[in-house]
Write a structure and sequence with these properties.
Elements: E1 14-16, H1 18-30, E2 34-41, E3 44-49, E4 60-65, E5 68-73, E6 97-106, E7 109-113, E8 122-127, H2 129-142, H3 150-155, E9 160-164, E10 190-195, E11 202-207, H4 210-217, E12 222-223, H5 226-241, H6 262-270, H7 276-280, E13 287-293, E14 299-306, E15 316-317, E16 320-321, H8 326-345, H9 355-358, H10 366-374
Parallel strand pairs: 2-8, 8-9, 9-10
Antiparallel strand pairs: 1-11, 1-12, 2-3, 4-5, 6-7, 6-14, 10-11, 13-14, 15-16
The structure holds iron/sulfur cluster (2 copies).
Length: 386
Amino acid sequence: MAATGQARIDPLSRVVDADGLDEMIASLRSHGRTVIGPVVRDEVITHDQVESAEDLPLGWTEDQDGGRYRLEPTGTDERFAFSSPSTSWKRFLFPERTLLIRARRSNGEVSVVEPEPEAPPVAFFGIRSCDLAALGILDRVFLDPGAVDPTYAARRPDVFIVAVGCNRPGNTCFCASMDTGPSPTAGYDIAMSELHGEGDTEYIVDIGSERGADLVASIGSRPATEGDLNRADRAHETAVAAMGRELRQEHVPLAALDPDHPRWADVAERCLACGNCTMVCPTCFCSTTEESTDLSGTETERWRVWDSCFSLDFTHLHGGSVRTSTRSRYRQWLLHKLVTWQDQFDTSGCVGCGRCVTWCPVGIDLTAEIAALAAPAAATGEECEA
Ligand code: SF4
Ligand code: SF4
């Protein structure tokens, strides 16, 4: 889907119905791919294996706000009427736990095995534009020629990407202001826009690669009409207008760099340092290593596991932690995400998905924190901490 203001009409655009989605999923599966898509589980929309269009969140949307998430029925036959699922896609490329080495002692000899990374063929079916942008950021981190991550590098290149434009952004979304959505513009094999409102819901399908073209050619579809394309454009414009929040890089104030700005103390009063924001964030990539030894002492394993800069141990060196206060840890997270990420990776570390706002148990909203940091310090009513 092309964003407003870009060349829009692709003569190769096709339209499929729900049966077409089924055919797509069946075709991907018949080529040996595990298809991962949005599903309803445990009263949230998350990602899991899908075997047919029946598994998609038919008739569900969510009510999201700071510290709040509720599933709600739409009463329609839309399958993509939600915004950011509760989990991001990073766990399929950068798993929560990865075995690095296993060592065994036998007859006085120690053998060390470094497992080959597992790279099962997968398709991401229904990835949002913001999450696609997040994959682009993770690519810079994990595929940097100076520090290639073996697991990510083994999995990422072959992933078949079926992106879907977001028609119903949540209250916590701000991808439009971050230029990462709501409609995918690159990085996909196939991009779809859900056309709802006139008869049965259909899907405009745009092709982004040869293998995407092959897949679309193998399923039933019809050419997109000017009316279909206009409907997709209107859906895009409506979604842009419905964004619940806004954050632009130029909003990030120099005052935020001041460690004594009183807003840091204010947010530290509210922040629980739980790390939820980093777990749900599609671009946070910090990890640590854990060693575990069996009770007989003959076998030991080293695992890489997700970690969070909100953890006290995260900066533990000899003599203790570098960032002992919640204030310093929140500041590290926010400024790394929005400022120093620019220096390291030439991009913001935020794609505006809003998950950190929704899943923060106390509803801390980074867009509000930035707005407060940009305001004159006296207006916050806080005392500066020395
Ligand atoms: S910082 Fe928050 S809004 Fe930005 S990408 Fe991460 S979870 Fe999404
Ligand atoms: S900002 Fe919210 S989610 Fe993040 S560590 Fe603090 S309390 Fe937890």
